[in-house]
Amino acid sequence: MLKFGIVGFGIMGRLYARIISESSEAKLVAVASKSESSLSLAREKYDVPVYDDPIEMYEKEKLDAVYIATPDYLHFEFTKEALERGINVLLEKPMTMDVVEAEELVEIEKKSRALGTIRFGNRFSPPFLKLKSAIEDGKFGKILSLNARLNDTIYVPTKMIKWSSKTTPAWFLMSHLLDLAYYLTGDKPMKVTARGVKKVLQNLGIDTYDQITALVNYESGMVGVFETGWILPESMPSVVDSAWEVIGETAASFVNLGDQMLTLASDKYEKPGTVMVEINGKLEGYLVYMLNLFIKAVRGEISNPIPFTDGLLNVKTLAAIHRSLEDDTWIEINHK
Length: 336
Fold this sequence. Notes:
The strands form four sheets. Strands 12-11-7-10-9-8-17 form a seven-stranded mixed β-sheet. Strands 3-2-1-4-5-6 form a six-stranded parallel β-sheet, with helices on both faces. It has a two-stranded antiparallel ribbon with strand order 13-14. The protein is globular. It is 37% helix and 27% strand. It folds into two domains: 136 residues, Rossmann fold, CATH 3.40.50.720; 178 residues, Dihydrodipicolinate Reductase, domain 2, CATH 3.30.360. It is built from eleven helices and 17 strands.
């Protein structure tokens, strides 16, 4: 049984605390967070030691693995320190917000006895598993274009997270889209251009983009258009709106994750998610599967499901997108 620590006890940290605690293959043994209220919750709910300093947790607890779910801009130090101590890392996306840092983590992991895996769990969401299978079966022929969007309501940058001014909807959301494009096609992004809008959130005192749209040219000639933003009205039936269009030579596919086969109308109109469900009091679904794959990889039973090199490619693409936003031009992605 793998002994897990968690760094960061926000939404994802709390979700994975439950998933880990319900696993027969893992045990939650400690939590680190800068938030006193989060630490109190972790202590009360899971009866584990809590730390306001993740490094202290690494030093005092005998951890086999750590799930790092800190804000986007705080991934590097805690990942580096864990790997150098031989602690296996399941790391939230994006890997980092800096290419040099991501490259350094790749090199540290190579020299470490530990495993580093990026938590791009959407790869294992049922619609994308089905789509991946159809592509691999040759139903599409050559993929010609991708068009994908992932948008949140304004609740997310104004109420759900307190650090939205230190990231962008591209780092926070488009990271998922770019990884899925790579997972589905195996095609490397070669150059990008992007445009963005800053207005609504800036007027609220939050200095970040409302919307970002990127055009990506791929090695095979495929073109991808990716849209992310987080200013949809809170009256939306779901906090997340996501859809995909995949066009090939001989087939097309359309995925709408905003409507997961279920709508519910009572005092309000809702579209509850169904790719994660509770069965007999335990969570089941793609995020549980992600954890199980990580555990198998740590044990050497399978290869790394999402290696740090995939995270680095994602960071390089996102960094190029943000450079394009600043320079208003095409930016080539360096694959060296």
